[in-house]
């Protein structure tokens, strides 16, 4: 009786890896050995970057808020301090949206923050 060399479980596993490597450049999408390495690395990057994305967006929001604050004649740190003293609790995502889309509302909030700092 001959020995089974290439069973269905092995083939299915290879097909799964090659399916995940679809769109990769060069041999990485067709050669199992290189595709396996590329997929493992790609999945680890995806896992890491799903977490990094949150920090990246927070950084972007702070940059946008700071730019809008400077136009109002106040620094970002003084603005945040003023918001805390005024008792205004609004997250950075919403503040950044206001800074870009609704400048009038942002100016009103900045005015309240300035007033709280002056008092």
How would you characterize the overall build of this protein?
This protein has 119 residues and is mostly helical. The protein has one domain: Ribosomal protein L20, C-terminal domain (c-terminal domain of poly(a) binding protein, Orthogonal Bundle). 76% of the residues lie in helices and 0% in strands. It has 5 helices and no strands. The protein has helices spanning 8-20, 32-71, 76-86, 92-101, 103-118. Helix 2 (32-71) packs across helix 4 (92-101), helix 3 packs across helix 5 and helix 4 crosses helix 5. The longest helix has 40 residues, at 32-71. The termini are far apart. The model has no long low-confidence stretch (mean pLDDT 93).
Q: Please tell me the overall pLDDT.
A: 93
How far the N terminus sits from the C terminus, by CA atoms, comes to 92 Å
Which ranges are low-confidence, i.e. pLDDT below 50, for 5 or more consecutive residues?
Answer: none
Structural class: mainly alpha
CATH class division: Mainly Alpha
What proportion strand?
under 5%
Provide the gyration radius in Å: 26 Å
Count structural domains: 1
The fourth-level CATH homologous superfamily is Ribosomal protein L20, C-terminal domain
Structure annotation, total helices = 5
Order of helices and strands: HHHHH
Sheet having the most strands: none
CATH structural fold name:
c-terminal domain of poly(a) binding protein
Helix content: over 70%
Shape: rod-shaped
| Beta strand count | 0
CATH A-level architecture: Orthogonal Bundle
């Amino acid at each position: 009786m001959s020995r089974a060399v290439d069973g269905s479980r092995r083939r299915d596993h290879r097909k799964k890896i090659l399916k995940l490597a679809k769109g990769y450049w060069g041999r990485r999408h067709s050669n199992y050995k290189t595709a396996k390495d590329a997929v493992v690395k790609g999945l680890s990057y995806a896992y890491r970057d799903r977490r990094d994305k949150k920090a990246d967006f927070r950084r972007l929001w702070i940059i946008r808020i700071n730019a809008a604050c400077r136009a109002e004649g106040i620094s970002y740190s003084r603005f945040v301090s003023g918001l805390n003293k005024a008792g205004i609790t609004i997250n950075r995502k919403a503040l950044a949206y206001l800074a870009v889309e609704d400048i009038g509302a942002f100016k009103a909030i900045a005015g309240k923050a300035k007033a709280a700092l002056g008092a």
